[in-house]
Each structure stands twice: as C-alpha cells, then as structure tokens.
Specification:
The complex is a heterodimer.
Chain A: E1 3-4, E2 14-16, E3 24-32, E4 35-43, H1 54-58, H2 60-69
Parallel strand pairs in A: 1-4
Antiparallel strand pairs in A: 3-4
Chain B: H1 5-14, H2 22-26, H3 33-41, H4 45-55, H5 59-65, H6 85-95, E1 111-115, H7 119-130, E2 134-138, H8 144-150, H9 156-168, E3 172-174, E4 199-202, E5 229-231, H10 246-265, H11 305-313, H12 322-326, H13 328-332, H14 337-349, H15 358-361, H16 369-373, H17 380-393, H18 399-413, E6 419-421, E7 431-434, H19 438-442, H20 444-457, E8 462-466, H21 471-475, H22 479-495, E9 500-503, H23 506-515, E10 521-523, H24 524-529, E11 544-547, H25 556-568, E12 573-574, H26 592-595, H27 597-608, E13 614-617, H28 620-628, E14 633-635, H29 636-640, H30 656-675, E15 690-692, H31 694-703, H32 707-720, E16 724-726, E17 732-736, E18 742-749, E19 755-763, E20 766-767
Parallel strand pairs in B: 1-2, 1-4, 2-3, 4-5, 7-8, 7-9, 9-10, 11-12, 11-13, 13-14, 15-19
Antiparallel strand pairs in B: 6-8, 16-17, 17-18, 18-19
Classes of the chains: A alpha+beta, B alpha/beta.
C-alpha cells in the first residue's frame, strides 16, 4: 500500500495537549466500506493522535466516501 | 433480488412517452410527422425534408402525392383543424435544397423481380434496393400511370428523378412490354419462381392475384400459394371509384419488401408485424390549456417558407410527460419513468463498477402524484421503494443516504421522547392523541395546546401517545426496522387499552393504517370538525392558500375536514394549481431531504411559488419545508390553538439540533406539567454550555452535526485529555466517533465554564491508526 500525500498545509502549529509534542506528517490507515488507504496525516509522534483537517474531510475524503458507497 | 427482465418490461410498458404520436402510428409508412414539424417550425427546411426521406420510398414522388391519412388522427383536429401534412410534404419536396443520398446496404446476393410500376411496385423496389437486393422492375413505361393519375401534383421531372434514383440504387428497369403472369413463374414449372429469381412481387395495379390465377394472398405477409411469390389485392379505397390511397399503396409495397426480406433470410414471415400497418398509439397527450389555432392561411401564390413554418408550428408535438411536468424530481433527472425504470434496473444489475442511479432512486418523494396523473398509473414511488428495499436487503444502500433521518426516528421512538399515558387523573383511554414526531420537533407548544383541545373535544378520556410512526423506515426501504417500530407502537397502544388514535400528522395516518391495521385511526381535524364543533366564525384575516400534504392525496375526508375547520375559523381559502389529489410534495417525502438535500430545497421552493398567499397546512414537516424555502406558512394548529407567537406564519423552521431538543423538552414539560412527574436526568454531556459561532451553526445545519455531538466530543476531550491545542490562538481541536461518523470540533473555553465553538466537521472514514 503506497502512502497518499493529500495535504500540503502546515499543521505544526497544533500540539498534542497530552504529550506536548508538535504534529508531524506520518502515514495513517483510513478505512471505509471495507476499503483501506494509507494517507499521510498530521500526527502526534508520541501518542499517535491524528488530525483530519476540515478541508480534507469535506473535500477528497467525502468524495471517496461517496464513491465507495456507490460501488 | 430486485426486478427481473420481465418486471422491467412491465414497468417500461406502463410509460407511454416513447410511443409514437398518433399521426406517425396512423401513417401507413410511419412518417415522423412530429419530428418533421419540429424541424420545419424552426425553419430547418432541409432537416425536415431529410426526416421525410428517412421514411418515404421515392420521397420526391410520395411527398407530392401523399393523401395524408395522418390528418384523421391529428389531435390538432379539434383545436383549429389537423396539421396540413400533405401540403407541408409538397412544400418540402419543392423547397428542399438537398436530398440525402440513399446508400443501399451491401449486396445480399439475392435477386427479386417486381412486376409492375404502380406505387406498390415502385415502393417495393425502392425498399428492397435499399436493403441490398438486386431488383429488376418490369414495366412497359415506368411511372406512366402515376403521371396520368397525379399529373397536377407530380411534375414529370420529379418522376424522372425518382426513377433515376432507383437506377442509381441498382434497380434494373426492364421496359418495353407490360409484365405478364408468365413472368411470375418458370417456363417449365408454373409452380416455381423464374430461373435465378429468389422472390417475386406482383404490383396489384398491374397484376392482381386473380390475373395470376392465385387465391387471396395472406393479408399480413402478402404470401401466396406459390412459395416466394408475393401479391396483393388493391387496398380498399375511400369513395367508390376513387383511386386508392397512395400512402396505402406504397405501404403495400413496403409490406411486400419486408416479407421478401424475411422469406429470403428464412426468418418468420409473421412474427412481430402487428405495428407494420396503421395502428393506434398508446401515447397519451394532455390537451388541457392548448389554445385552438386554425390552419395558417395559404398565400395566393402558394405555400411559401413563412406559411410552412407557421403551419408546422401548429403541430402539438404530442408527448405524454404529464408526470414529469408536474414533478420537480422527475424533471430534475431529465428523463421519464420508462428511462428511469431501465436506469434502476441497470443500477441493481451492476456487479463491478459504480451504481449511477443510487441518488436518483433515493430522491423520489414517493408522494404518488405521478401515479395519480399517469393514464397508465405508473407509480415511480413504488418502483423506487422496491429498489430501495432490494438495496437494503443486499447491503448495497449507501449508509449516508438515510442514516441521519433514521437516527432522528430512533430519537423520537427512544426513551427521551416517546410517551404513552392516559390523560391526567384517568386510568383508561377511549382515545389517544398521536401528534407524530415532526410536530413536537417543529412546535412543541402546539402539541401541548392541541392535546388540551383534543381532551376537551373528544367524547371520552383521551390519552397521549408520543413516538414516530415509522414512516422514515418505510421510505428508507428498511422493512425490518419498520416492523420493529410497529411492534413498539402496538405495545404502547395495547398498554393504553386499544384507544382510537386521533392523529395530527397525515403521514402518520398513512403509516399507522399500514402498521396498526387493527386500530381505529382518525384525524384530529375530523374530530374537531365533527358534530359539536364550533359554528363558523365571521370571515377574518387574509385569504390563505391550502397546501394539502401529499400523504392526504387519497384521503378526501381528511382534506375536507381541514377546509371545514378553516371555514369555521372564518378564513377564506384559495387553492394552488396542484391541489387535492394532485397536490405536490413539500420535498421531505420519501426522505428526499435526507438523501438529496439540494433537490429537496428545490422542490420546496417550487411548491412555495405555487401560491401568492400565505400557505396553511396540516403537516408540520410541510410547514417547515415551506418556511425553509422562505415562504410564509401556517400550521393549522397556529389557527386552531394559537400560542403567543405574534406572527406564526413567519416562524423559522427549527434546525436539526433544536428539533431534537424540542422533542425532549416537550416530553419533560408534559411529564412535569400534566402528570407531576420528574423526568429522568439528562446525559452528562448536555450540561456543557456551548456558544456556537454563526458560521459554525450554519455549517452544522448543512453537515447534519448536532449540538449534542459536539458536547460529546468536548466532554470526552476533557475527560481523557485527548485534544490538540494551537499555541498561537489557544484553540482546542478534538474528535470523537460515537457511531459511524467521526466528529471534529475546534473550540475554546469561554472563561465562564462554557465553550465557544468555532468550527465543526465530520467524516465517515475511520482512522485505523498507523500502518500495520
């Protein structure tokens, strides 16, 4: 599974409240309707808390959700 | 499994939109007169002529001598007079600047002999040459008889051109002698065809079956007792002694050509030929509102382009489309029920690839208007509902289509909203007031006032039954869920002692009659309009437009009770163009608003435009859909049991969160107020005080995110410490997936123990953590 790069914004301003660490881009697995994708997302390097930004959720991600629902 | 091929055909057959117009069906040659007139009315003379040339044999001759039997079938007949097709054909034959060349199919290697040059013989030769047959036409002087009969209309040059076209198509003209019966058989064997000939057609004006010594040919195939020899009696004419109809003669030639093609291919001579000659079309055309228009006056110097355009413009372009014209949904997808049936069938048949029709079949309001207007009772709602049930059964229903609406239903049926009680101080119920789940969501105060009204008006103790009837499950195709909802409803109803249900929602009336057939079910409106109801008041207030909810389409008594109450209230009413059994859905029905909110809003906006006056309706959801479209709209209860709202017609429709909160508060208020009971505690997250920025509130409405969803996220973040913080702004960002949706909220503490919400979004895709 190759990692998709869909974000080019800077999310390092967000820190994990629990770990105090800045988010870094890291591969995350997303799943819907039995399909899995590996996508690079901002993530806490310590605890793994992962951010799905608004633009992604309402853009590409919603598009793929709809495609998978109609498959 | 969904519909099979046979069921698809049955559905398709009910939609007559693709049936030919009556003129084309009546034409023995099936000329597309509607298409011809469409082009000609736009001034496209050559395109109109090309349309004629596609169908007519020897078009330059036929168009000039056509007797236009289509006129008798033309629906314009009763509205000024039939379209003058014959004159239009003559105009085209003269005025067209380009005749499309005929390109015969590749040679079939079959030889056909046509004996005689009447119209039937010429048409037969024309059609067979087009199909790639080697045709020989025997006649002493081809076309001479035609010229003699039609000389006034048929210039010699036009006939010469048609004969030249025949020769260019490969027809060999054997001239010089009249064809004799001997030519139809082999010299040495009178029962066989001539040497090297695969079939023979004897033109009836040249060689009648009698002249050939044969009995009557078969009317369908024109076959005779001699295999491969086709012949025909002359078609019955109009008046005695009148020449036979040119169109019918040419059609005889065409029939012979079709038979010869089948014969030489070894195909059935009889199968599927019912519509070869003139037939009755099933196309239904609504003439309502069509103004009469007499034929365009013919200029003294004869037909010209302006006349032809004007005359062609009188064609009604007959089509059905009666459902499509009245339904924003059917119109939106740019087809008609027949095409939709096929799309839905294909959608279900897909094994790999995209199901293109999911949103289309989830957008039908299932309101029954199409079935009511359709002359063949095509019920798009029934078709879509069957497809939805099939998708649910096979696990192919997109989860996002109906989930929010079904969650809403679950809330209305859940412990925070549902209630079944005898009236305060009573231990039995002869009646039970059933307001449905949308009136409590829209206007909980109206439910309390209506319950008081019902208790005062009904002749027996009147309990209260709060819950959803299950209509969303029905619309979503979730049969099991509908049955389950029905069982819970039945349990409440039995616990109240089988009271007569007095219902204030038209959709509930329909659904309850389906899921609780043993119950007596009436409407609050009929109960209040019945005997003992107040006398009519004096006319007051502006006139109101009555919006019949689509669920009352087949319930005239319910609609009448609403009007009776309005009359007693002293209100004058007007009716929109589509009303009563022809009423339009507000855009909520069938869960359109859930599956396709943009189209739902369009439907509501269209209905909102149907009246100048404020609307009044007996359905809380209709009222709110109209209000959302910006239309002033009243619920009947705003008049029957007014609250303190000074201008209830202007009351905005509550948003998703407010609707659910309204239901909960209604139950809490009723328990405290009527039964002196303290409702159970609210869940902990609801204690969080949120202030939602206006932009976030709008986004939440569009994205179907509830305030309670955000409260859950923030509470969870506070309890677990799992959140993100932006050092620069101090804002927090947290998420939670309490069900199949992940919610995100960006917020900050407001300094007073509550939270200010800046953004909220959601997604269905699940984060599974890092790669394995």
């Amino acid at each position: 599974m190759s990692t998709l790069k869909v974000l080019d914004g800077d999310y390092s301003g967000w820190r994990c409240a629990a770990c105090g660490q800045s988010l870094v881009m890291a591969p995350a697995v997303l799943e819907y309707m039995g399909s899995r994708f590996e996508v690079e997302l901002p993530r806490c390097p310590a605890c793994g808390l992962t951010l799905v930004p608004e633009d992604l959720a309402l853009g590409k991600m919603l598009e793929v959700e709809k495609l998978l629902e109609d498959k | 499994m969904g519909m099979d091929q046979k069921e698809l055909r049955q559905w398709e057959a009910r939609c007559t939109q693709e049936e030919p117009p009556r003129c084309q069906a009546a034409c023995p040659l099936h000329l597309d007169a509607r298409g011809l007139c469409t082009a000609l009315a736009e001034g496209r003379v050559d395109a109109a002529w090309a349309t004629a040339c596609r169908t007519l044999p020897l078009p330059g001759v036929m168009a000039r001598i056509c007797d236009a039997p289509c006129r008798a079938a033309c629906l314009r007949s009763g509205l000024g007079g039939a379209v003058e097709m014959g004159a239009l054909e003559r105009f085209l034959a003269r005025a067209a600047t380009r005749t499309p060349p005929v390109r015969p199919l590749p040679a079939r290697g079959k030889a056909v002999l046509v004996l005689g040059d009447g119209l039937a013989g010429l048409a037969c030769a024309w059609d067979l040459a087009r199909k790639g047959y080697a045709v020989t036409l025997a006649a002493r002087d081809p076309g001479r008889a035609l010229l003699a009969r039609h000389g006034d209309e048929l210039p010699e040059a036009a006939l010469a051109e048609a004969l030249a076209a025949l020769e260019r198509m490969g027809v060999a003209l054997r001239t010089g002698a009249d064809p004799s019966p001997a030519l139809a058989a082999r010299e040495d064997d009178p029962h066989a065809l001539p040497e090297g000939v695969d079939a023979v057609f004897a033109d009836p004006e040249t060689l009648s079956p009698q002249a050939l010594g044969l009995g009557e040919p078969d009317a369908l195939t024109l076959g005779t007792t001699r295999l491969g020899l086709f012949a025909a009696p002359l078609p019955a004419g109009g008046a005695a002694g009148a020449p036979p109809s040119p169109a019918l003669l040419a059609a005889l030639g065409r029939r012979a050509a079709n038979s010869i093609e089948r014969f030489t291919q070894g195909a059935s001579l009889t199968a599927g030929r019912e519509r070869e000659g003139p037939f009755d079309s099933r196309l239904s055309t609504d003439l309502d509102g069509v103004a009469p228009a007499p034929p365009a006056p013919l200029p003294a110097q004869g037909a010209d382009a302006a006349w032809a355009r004007a005359e062609a413009a009188r064609c009604l372009r007959c089509e059905c489309m009666q459902c499509v014209r009245r339904c924003a949904y059917l119109e939106h997808y740019k087809g008609y029920p027949k095409t939709y049936a096929r799309q839905i069938y294909n959608n279900a048949s897909i094994v790999m690839g995209m199901r293109q029709a999911n949103t289309m079949l989830n957008s039908c309001m299932i309101c029954g208007l199409c079935e009511t207007v359709c002359p063949e009772d095509f019920d798009m709602g029934g078709l879509c509902l069957t497809a939805r049930r099939d998708m649910v059964e096979r696990g192919k229903m997109p989860p996002s289509a109906h989930e929010f609406a079904l969650d809403d239903m679950a809330q209305a049926c859940g412990p925070d909203c549902a209630l079944a009680r005898h009236a305060p101080g009573q231990d039995a119920s002869a009646f039970a007031f059933f307001p449905g789940c949308q009136l409590p969501a829209s206007d909980p105060g109206a439910v309390e006032r209506a319950y008081a009204l019902a208790r005062a008006a009904l002749p027996g103790p009147t309990g209260l039954l709060l819950r959803c009837c299950g209509a969303p499950a029905h619309w979503a195709g979730r049969e099991a869920l509908l049955a389950q909802t029905g069982e819970a409803l039945r349990a409440d109803w039995l616990a109240l002692g089988r009271p007569e249900l007095v219902v204030a929602c038209p959709t509930c009336v329909l659904t309850l009659r389906r899921v609780l057939p043993e119950a007596r079910i009436g409407t609050l409106w009929a109960a209040l309009a019945g005997p003992g109801a107040p006398a009519p008041g004096a006319a007051s207030g502006e006139a109101l437009a009555v919006h019949d909810p689509c669920a009352s389409r087949h319930d005239p008594a319910q609609r009448q009770a609403v009007r009776e109450l309005l009359h007693r209230l002293g209100r004058t009413t007007v009716e929109p163009a589509l009303t009563g059994e022809y009423t339009e859905c507000c855009g909520f029905g069938g869960l359109l608003d859930a599956a396709n909110p943009a189209l739902g809003a369009q439907v509501a906006a269209r209905r909102a435009r149907a009246a100048q006056e404020d609307f009044v309706t007996s359905c809380a959801m209709c009222r709110d859909m109209l209000a959302r479209a910006g239309k002033r709209a009243l619920h009947l209860l705003d008049l029957l049991a007014p609250g303190e709202e000074p201008d209830p017609a202007a009351r905005p429709a509550p948003g998703h969160s407010a609707r659910r909160e309204n239901r909960v508060r209604l139950r809490e208020g009723l328990l405290r107020g009527l039964w002196a009971e303290e409702p159970g505690p609210r869940p902990a997250h609801e204690a969080l005080a949120l202030t939602i920025a206006p932009e976030a509130a709008r986004a939440m409405q569009d994205r179907r995110i509830l305030t309670t969803d955000l409260q859950k996220v923030i509470l969870h973040a506070r309890e677990t410490g799992r959140a993100l913080v932006d050092a620069a702004t101090g804002r927090h960002l947290a998420s939670l997936r309490p069900g199949p949706v992940t919610y995100w909220v960006e917020y900050e503490p407001d300094g007073a123990g509550g939270f200010l919400v800046h953004k909220a979004w959601s997604h269905r895709m699940q984060i599974m953590g890092g790669p394995a």
